[in-house]
Design a protein that fits this description.
With 169 residues, the chain is mainly beta. It folds into two domains: 1-29; 31-164, Uncharacterised protein PF14869 family, DUF4488 (Lipocalin, Beta Barrel). The chain has one helix spanning 2-26, and strands spanning 37-46, 52-63, 68-79, 88-103, 108-116, 125-133, 140-146, 155-164. Strand 2 and strand 3 (68-79) form a beta hairpin.
């Protein structure tokens, strides 16, 4: 009898903690699954034959299930020693931005920029972004955001290629 009560109490505790976690995740908007993963910033180029290629840049954005994100960038630093003909390249990767995401519709989301390590004036600001996935490839994401966060400001367009899904489907 005590074992049954214990098992029932354990089941109630586990169920309660799952409901709490889901409620916390739901408080920041809609379905994050289309955005989950690690994305590489790319340049979309149309070739003379009409086909499209994507040229990867050294900028990556990771969006996690807990609706947090981080952006990392890499730079190459040439290191040349005195009697060396060709410099050795050392790649340095660093976090440029961290924050949280709130899905506001099927095509918009907010980025709460908690820390911007390059431009401190962006700390604790909010960016409103529009997004759409490619019709032919769900791993291509088109993003637009407004500089100055006003409708009359300049809109910036970016293309991102998902390079690591993180369980997204």
């Amino acid at each position: 009898m005590k074992a049954k009560r214990f098992m029932l109490l354990l089941a109630v505790c586990i169920f309660g903690s799952l409901v709490t976690v889901n409620a916390q995740n739901d408080k920041k908007g809609g379905d994050i699954k289309p955005l989950l993963g690690t994305w590489q910033y790319v340049e979309e180029v149309t070739k003379s034959d009409g086909s499209t290629i994507y040229i990867g840049k050294k900028i990556y954005k990771t969006i996690r299930e807990d609706k947090t994100y981080s952006i990392m960038a890499s730079i190459d630093i040439p290191i040349k020693e005195e009697n060396q003909e060709k410099p050795i390249v050392s790649t340095v990767t660093f976090v440029t931005q961290q924050g949280e995401i709130e899905i506001t519709s099927g095509s918009t989301y907010l980025e709460y920029i908690n820390n911007h390590y390059i431009d401190k004036t962006l700390n604790n600001t909010i960016s409103n972004l529009k997004f759409r996935r490619s019709d032919t490839n769900p791993n291509i994401l088109y993003v637009e955001y407004n500089i100055g966060d006003t409708e009359s400001g300049d809109w910036v367009s970016e293309v991102w290629l998902r390079v690591l899904p993180l369980g997204a489907r």
